[in-house]
């Protein structure tokens, strides 16, 4: 078994694509219309274009329990996923300069350093630097 695709619930796929590519630095991998104005829309890390894909999933617009789950995670301050970075301080500075809002600034938690950001799609994303 291996991970090929993980999904992140988003309300507006085009806004999500812009955020995940222009701010977070991912690159678009797949963009396939699937009907109803929805797309099979994935992004990947530029360092690993054949690696795991992040599906920008429009489920909150099409499945009420997904919207409820997304809102509950956000309201509780729980990230929906995490991305690993080589230097959290460097990424924090870069993203902060791009106007990305953080709910948690870089914090040392022993074996790792974390920060939590808001994407523009209703999610919290945790960045992790393993020491």
Automatic annotation (TrEMBL):
Domain of life: Bacteria
PROSITE patterns: VOC
Domain VOC: 2-130
Record Pfam families: Glyoxalase
GO molecular function list: dioxygenase activity; lyase activity
Entry keyword set: Dioxygenase, Lyase, Oxidoreductase
Cross-referenced PANTHER family: GLYOXALASE/BLEOMYCIN RESISTANCE PROTEIN/DIOXYGENASE, GLYOXALASE_BLEOMYCIN RESISTANCE PROTEIN_DIOXYGENASE
Protein name: Catechol 2,3-dioxygenase-like lactoylglutathione lyase family enzyme
Originating organism: Zeaxanthinibacter enoshimensis
């Amino acid at each position: 078994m291996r991970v090929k695709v993980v999904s992140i619930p988003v309300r507006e796929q085009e806004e999500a694509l812009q955020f995940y590519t222009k701010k977070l630095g991912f690159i678009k991998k797949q963009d396939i219309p699937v009907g109803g104005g929805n797309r099979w829309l994935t992004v990947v890390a530029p360092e690993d274009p054949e690696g795991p894909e992040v599906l920008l999933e429009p489920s909150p617009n099409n499945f009420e329990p997904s919207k409820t789950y997304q809102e509950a995670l956000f309201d509780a301050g729980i990230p929906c996923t995490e991305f690993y970075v080589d230097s959290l301080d460097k990424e924090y500075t870069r993203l902060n300069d791009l106007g990305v809002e953080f709910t948690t600034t870089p914090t040392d938690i022993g074996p790792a350093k974390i920060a939590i950001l808001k994407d523009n799609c209703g999610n919290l994303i945790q960045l992790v630097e393993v020491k």
